[in-house]
Amino acid sequence: MVISSYRQLTRLPTPEKARFKLGDLFKEVARMATSDWLDKGLALITQVEPSELDVFADRQMIEQVLINLLQNSEHALLDAKDGLVSLSARLNQRGHVTIEVSDNGPGIPEEIISRIFVPFYTTRREGSGVGLALSRQVMIAHRGMITFANNEKGGARFTLVF
After folding, report:
1. Is there a contact between 66 and 29 (Cβ–Cβ < 8 Å)?
2. CATH number of the domain that 136 lies in?
3. Helix 22-33 vs helix 59-76: angle between axes, to the nearest 10 degrees?
4. Residues 37 and 43: beta-carbon distance below 8 Å
5. Residues of the chain with pLDDT under 50
6. What total of structural domains would you count in the chain?
């Protein structure tokens, strides 16, 4: 498993970019990643502003990043009551497409924030430590970035900027 995970990180293909609507991507990602969330007491809200917002990127790669982030939120909310995840897209002040995945879980402890994007670093027994590192590589391949912050009222927020 470690070898295949390492290969995934080091042999990231060149993005095959095309223009696509983020609303369509969000519907597909929600369908794939949240099918059992109601049973777990979790909810997802999505928002794309403006509604026709699109991005020039590799759809499969961005889809995988978003699924990974949603799975991380799901894991963080396993013991939460009324777990809520927000998936939103907008243009930032500089006109760059920005996608945010935010949840109302416990957030990430300050002492480990600096390590969350390091390959193979994980806090989960069954985790590989590849998801966030791979997400970072995907965003670098798109000449963008991924950042993290804890929300003021609790929870985590990951931001993708293209």
Report:
1. yes
2. 3.30.565.10
3. 50
4. yes
5. 1-7, 9
6. 1
33-72 tens-digit pLDDT = 999 998 898 999 999 999 999 999 999 999 999 999 999 9
Query: What's the pLDDT score for residue 123?
Result: 65
pLDDT in the model for residue 59: 98
- 88 lies in which domain range? 2-161
| Region at 32 (left for phi over 0; alpha for psi -120 to 50; beta for the rest) | alpha
Q: 59 CB contacts (<8 Å, ≥6 apart)? A: 18, 20, 25
Angle at 56 between CA 48 and CA 162, to 5 degrees: 70
Which structure tokens are listed for 22?
Answer: 């983020």
